Amino acid sequence: MIMEDFKYIGKSVPRIDAADKASGKIKYMSDLNFPGMLFGKILRAKYPHALIKKIDTSQAKALPGVVAVVTWEDVPGLNGFGIVTPDQPVLCKDKVRYIGDAVAAIAAETKELAEKALTLIDVEYEPLPVVDDPIKAIQSDSPKVHDDGNIHLHTKVVRGDVRKAFEEADLVIEHIYCTGEQEHAFLEIETGIARIEEDDILTIYAGSQYPQRDQMQLSRCLALNPCKIRVVSYPVGGAFGGKDELTIQPILGLLVLKTKRPVKMVMTREESVISYWKRHPMIMKYKTGVKKDGTLVANKVIIYADTGAYASLGGPVVNLAIEHACGPYKLSNVDIEGYCIYTNNGVSGAFRGFGVPETAFAIETQMDIIAEKLGINPIELRKKNALQKGDIAPVGNKLTTSVGTVAVLDGISKTKLWKEREKYLVKNTKKPWIKRGFGFALTYQGTGLGVGLPDYGGAILRFCENGGFEVGVGLVDYGQGIGTSYAQIAAEMMKCPIDKIKVVLGDTALTADSGPTSASRGLYLGGKATIIAAEKMMTVLKEKTSEMLKVSVDNLDAENGYICMKNQPEKKISYEEIAAQFMKETDHLPETEGYFLMPLADMKVENAFGLPHHIFAFSAHLALVEVNTLTGQTKVLKGAEVIDAGDVINRQGLEAQSEGGFVMGMGYGLFENMIIEKGIFKTTNFSTYIIPSAEDIPSDIETVTVTDPEETGPYRAKGVAETVMCATAPAITNAIYNAVGLRIFKLPATSELVYTLLEKKEEKCNESTN
Amino acid sequence: MKALNYLRADTIDSALQYLDEFKQDIRIIAGGTDLVVRLKQDMVKENNILDISRIKELNGIFRENGTIHVLPLTTHTDILESEVIDKYAFILREACATIGSPQIRNRGTLGGNIVNASPAGDSISALFVQTAKLKLKSINGERVVSIEEFFTGPGKTILKPNELLVDIFMPELEENETGFFKKLGQRDALAISVLNVAVKMRRRGAGTNTFDRAVVAFGAVAPTVVRGRRVENAIISSSLDSSKQIHYIARLAFREVSPISDIRASLKYRQDMSINLLYEGLLDLRANDWKRKT
Amino acid sequence: MVQTMDISFALNGKEYKLSVPANAVLLDIIRDKMHLTGTKEGCGRGECGACTILFNGRSVNACLILAPQADGAEIVTVEGADVERKLLSIQKAFVEEGAIQCGFCTPGMIMSSLYLLNKNPNPSISEIREGISGNLCRCTGYVKIIKAVERASKDIGK
Fold it and tell me: Which of A103, A244, A555, A711 has the most CB atoms lying inside 10 A of its own CB?
């Protein structure tokens, strides 16, 4: 298929909200203030695991300036929330399960009074033993975080006969991999403001990834008809999965209902870190069998994921980890199981990659080890096993959509980094203790929610008096740039200048439910829905024009803001005139809606909710590193990503995702180490939880796209927001191996870890030579 | 943040009056980069905050009779922008360049870094090896102490509640003096030292690998910054001809430090790094014919 | 009782006199009292740079300045293009290079860039990295931000 000559699709269109963000004019939810507003504060648990014996709020209530103090007794509806299982109390009644659990909340005239009032709430606890080790937690004698036990979910997927396959394998590689708890570290902390607006509608302005689901969850907690709740969430200062679940919204809503006044809640960074979602730390046992020629024959994996105190999306995260545990490789004998385990270690939930960065680290290290042991070029090894269109994926589904595995592997050779790696890998003769290495890793990521869940995109297109259009999609642009992509798509479809497109996102009152902004699905589903709405709108415009010009619809075409006659392009009516005609005739302008159902895989995996996925994006990540063997410090000198995004809608946006994903993956691989001791967070700010700064990044991050067009996608595109970060860490750890001969089985590979391992390795060497 | 009584002094005398008047219940603010964080965390017990940031007499860098004076309100940025410092106190310069971020360096002062007495305070190790002295003044008079005797523990100094640090001065680095400041952080910017080391050495002459004077200090490896006297003695009493010899000397660092384990690093890692960072710094210096990093 | 102080300062070229609590930080005054919400709070501890402003010509974290300390100061925020014309070029470069994603770090990033370019109109790449090293960004990976500052320095030099 030949790429059409598009005006906006495939171009580097600057973000439509960039100018307002650059000038500081745009108002984030945390920038809003309303007259007469109160300030809300939350009392967090004193212990990571304890029974609540008594809550006495009388002194706090008596403090002048305190308008409301709420506890579990004040929750009018279900005192529980959670996307899959509502097991997290809005306000704890008889037990706290992590140090960020909410016990009470205050609304007061000033922030200071609210803070003071918190200290006046008397809570009597009976501390319980802290469950902080997920492996111990699943033993029968462990103290229980929840009455039903500490296993929130156990999934096992078996295909073929692994035992037999291992017997037939020429080489079996077995290792245990551990990954750290990653903090989203979005710059805008969970913060919001709420009030009762016209028609008694409780309106919540707070960062979210799915306003319509928030509305439903809030409705359940607050015992309020959803039509009496409006959730607004745009713009959002970063989310990365961390604003998928509810955060402050239920308490904010509760305080507004209680006080009938606007309430603003501003978290501190420390409170955000201890209270809200993180990436699941995982322990993964891998056993991979391979033939001498490099053919993978079996993979046995056990994943232990620490979901912390509440479920949120822990179950789906583990299932997605299972689906991707084998990497994008052909494997017909697999035995993969995963445990999602409750502990008192904070709360884990959705985070960019959703289980895939963890397993990618494991499988891509396994692949690197196998390549070395068998003496096979690591690219060739991966190519030999690469999943291709028509193949059966490890969990059993046939891949019928675009599969870019080979294209991505071939793309590696197109990067400057690959071409010049020999030059970069010269020995440092001046500083022989500094060693360079090159590594890469491959990954893929399913798009959408998978089988078993309704997965659809929705868009509303409103015709405007100026002849432009307003696109309303329920998804949220928290930085990834979907709003701009929708504008590109709408402008392309409606044949009008892009500045005539206004995009409204993340507002339950103004947009169509489009599902969660997660799972790399925003561009795909919102884009498809926009296309459908636009097709309908085009028909409406043409029909009106055909009435006005008294010609058949078939003879009409659209161009640059006009509907014109096909053979007489000078005979045309502008969209503005069409709008005027509508207004004249009916006093209102048409709007159309588009809905698109996600195509699903041809089967479902039994007892593995959400599995499998049907559409995948692929990427290879490359890294050139320098390891200082005296200190263990690893510096990433150069990076590259080869991405199969289908056809690219916005080149600049894709690069931005790739660069940001690479650096986030680098942080995950090298620095980001959330330390929790006995349920207490030790790294609650940016001087202790280390995310990369501008001085830590490589001098170059290349983005090379290879295109395997996704025929089902909007303009044959697919989403890449997650895959771009998933294999950076293993690319780096494989490069560390290349530099100093050290295998990393634990993330992050901090300086201290690398140094300690190097030292041990040296000791071993000395032993063997002695 | 708790309620505060904010006071401002525009002269040293007025500051000393305030300090005397409020005795124990007064805390000085200059750049505030450290104090405001503490205030927000309710870690400050004093109720009166004395702003000295406008005292002109406490701000400036100048040379006088072979001595460099860096007055306490001098910001890290001022230090980085000073040609005098670059020429005669470059080890201090190297240290200040690693502190925080441009924003922190623009606001944080040298005096603040000293008085906060963090064992990881980057400028302090440099001041140790530049053998700085501090002038402390109260309404009762003034005294001069060496930087080494100033600290008694993390956050603790010999500064009396009514005393003000009014001058920081050190001998100019001589032509044949060399040295470095080296820091190990958890990332390349905005990092707090896991460990730092500062070294100053006087070379016996061009072409030699021998030194007749050496001062070495380690930060973040003990309750205060510490001198590495065994290392110093070893440098003076040998010739730094080979990397093997340098490593042999650096290994003495092990005897100088008494680190703890915390969230940034373990005791063992800090111990080893005190050796390796010194080793790497000396090797780098040697590779550059013992000339300062440019 | 919270002590209040009468202070005056120039904010984006305009003189203001106001009464502030002694224990307020400048960031809150700018955001809540002056209603300039372009300056963001990301950590409250001077570790993220989202609140970067120019204070007497130097970039600082507004979250670490006690409000009374701002008495007599000249302050410029991201909204201050009237007094710092270079802001327009920097903002334009950020938009065109695609250096903005969620945008929450952007105002602080732009203020650090402004300070850098005021001091050093032709910074090298490593000077740019150092210049924005006090501003954390979680979306972009900094690549396009660095390019934007480079581009702004060229545009301003024209």
Answer: A244
Paired tokens of A201: 């509608």
Instruction: Give the pLDDT mean for A24-31.
Output: 96
Of B109, B194, B120, B119, nearest to B152 by C-alpha is B119
Q: How many Cβ atoms are within 10 Å of A368's Cβ, its own excluded?
A: 24
C114 contacts on A by Cβ (under 8 Å): none
Q: Return the H-helix or E-strand segment holding B171.
A: strand B164-171
- Rounded to whole angstroms, the Cα distance separating A701 from A621 reads 10
CB–CB of A283/A215 below 8 Å? Answer: no
Q: Give which of B103, B109, B188 to mutate to test C binding, by max C Cβ within 10 Å.
A: B103
Q: β-pairing, B156-157 with B151-153?
A: antiparallel
Mean pLDDT of chain A: 96
B10-38 pLDDT per residue, tens: 999 999 999 999 988 999 999 999 999 99
C109 part of contact set with chain B, CB < 8 Å: no
Residue B37 Cα, gap to closest chain A Cα (Å): 12
Residue type, A173: I
Report the distance separating Cα A243 and Cα A184, nearest Å. 9
User: Which domains are delineated in chain C?
Assistant: 4-80 (3.10.20.30), 83-156 (1.10.150.120)
Who's near B108: CB < 8 A, 6+ residues apart? Answer: B31, B33, B34, B75, B76, B99, B100
Q: From B192, which residue of chain A is nearest by alpha-carbon distance?
A: A687
Round to whole Å and give the CA distance between C73 and B107: 13
C151's tokens:
């581009």
Query: Which CA distances in Å does A582 have to A99, A467, A534, A540?
Result: 58, 11, 17, 11
ipTM of the prediction greater than 0.90, yes or no: yes
Q: Percent of chain A, pLDDT > 70?
A: 99
Number of H helices, E strands in chain B: 12, 14
Show the tokens assigned to B219: 């930060």
3-state secondary structure of B57: helix
The pLDDT value given to residue A2: 45
Distance of alpha carbon B151 from alpha carbon A57, whole angstroms? 45
Q: What is the pTM of this model?
A: 0.98
Q: Which residues of B touch A682 (CB under 8 A)?
A: 263
* Distances A389 to A398, A467, A495, B114 between C-alpha atoms, Å: 8, 43, 34, 65
Q: Does A325 have pLDDT greater than 60?
A: yes
**C-alpha span between A381 and A59 (Å, rounded):** 68
Sequence letter at residue A83: I
- Minimal Cα–Cα distance from B2 to chain C, Å? 7
What does the block give as tokens for B236? 């003076």
Residue A417, CA distances (Å) to A368, A438, A621, B222 in order: 19, 9, 11, 43
Would you say A337 and A310 are in contact if contact means Cβ atoms under 8 Å apart?
no
Question: What's the token pair of residue B40?
Answer: 């927000």
Q: What is the separation of C-alpha A196 from the centre of its chain, rounded to a whole number of angstroms?
A: 31
What Cα–Cα distance (Å) separates residue A687 from each residue in A20, A269, A334, A458, B99? 30, 12, 43, 42, 12
CB atoms within 10 A of CB A571: 15
Question: Position A93: which residue type?
Answer: K
Chain B residues lying within 8 Å of A631, measured CB to CB: 184, 273, 276-277, 280
Decide if pLDDT at B294 tops 70.
no
- Nearest residue to B127 via CA among B87, B164, B91: B91
Whether C139 sits inside 8 A of A479 (CB atoms) is yes
Instruction: Judge whether residue B291 has pLDDT over 50.
Output: yes
**pLDDT > 70? residue C1:** no
Q: Minimal Cα–Cα distance from A391 to chain B, Å?
A: 43
